[in-house]
Amino acid sequence: MTETPEPVDPDQWRTIKAGTASNMLVSTCRALLVYSLSNQRLHTVANPRRTIDAGPWASDNSEKDFGLFRSTDNGNTWQRLTRGLPQRPEVRALTVDPSDPGTVYAATQVGPYRSRDGGESWGSLGLDGLGTTWSVTVHPADSDVLLVGTTDAGVHRSVDGGATWQVLPTIMPMGVCDGGFAPRILRVVLDPSHPYEMYAALEIGGVIRSLDNGHSWSSCNSGLLALAEDDRYKSRLVSDADHEGMMDCHALAISRERPGTLFLACRMGLFRSVDRGESWEDVGINRFSTLTYARDLRVSPHDDRVVLGAFSRAFDGDAGSLYRSDDLGESWQRFDHGLEMDSTLMTVAASPSSDERVWCATRHGQVVGTEDGGETWLSRALPERIKGVWAIACA
What we know:
- The chain is built from four helices and 29 strands.
- By secondary structure, the chain is mainly beta.
């Protein structure tokens, strides 16, 4: 049973409906969705000009501190939304369809969900028995093709928009660390130039790949494990393996500009493979940033040479930064104008509908964005006690 959304001002409600219900206006409905993972909670934000959806799992067990919320006044107040979502939703990821910004996918504790109206209402994609899902990927050229990442290095694929699903024969690669939880797939990417080539990032499990449209899989960890022999890349927090830090993979990115070249964000920094994951090299983000813990990477949907990166001190650090590379990772510049961030920058998103819109979010609930290509920056706060943000997506 779902809760009835709390009422909002009628004028504000009409604005939301115009921006989310009409296909003609979807591209101008500037949706920004965030989820977090602190203690299994979800929330949302919006205003008449820009819709912001946020899904933090708060540390407090109060009923007021989780759910799906919307703000119609730029994040100053929040309205609870629950229509179609499972009770007490635990959302790990939100993905906007790049060809239809009004369509949003959510990875929940009971499988993937979809909204066709910018987050106003949701429906299950029929994998309710799957359990926890950690990522949703939309094929860059065919929105009917969906990939869902799960625990135990699992990937489910649909080629008909979620009507039916198949389990891909992924593997548990060499080097997986025993951290007391099964490795989960936090990101799946397809090479835009060769979309039958796909790669997956596993938390404390490294990287796996398929070069034949998911029919067979192999490990990309040999090069990462070789780097971990160097003391600079040794780190262990939840296991007894010194290579844990190199296996703690958070995000992957690949550009149409350079097929077969992967960028990897992990605990130990930013790494690159120019041979489809056969070998890896350190990009050397420490040449440009004192913050090197890499949490997220995104290639701009408008310029294949532009890469955005989220760098911080640690998973639960006290500072974050957003960097931009205009030459596919050869050099990096601070993009957020040195804006002070209160904690680890967990996630960054580039709008598929505007090349001037970029938003990011910190672990403690600070939402930062630009609507003018980085000339000016906005800083917003999620409601009090809402922390643990993990991801953001903007339309």
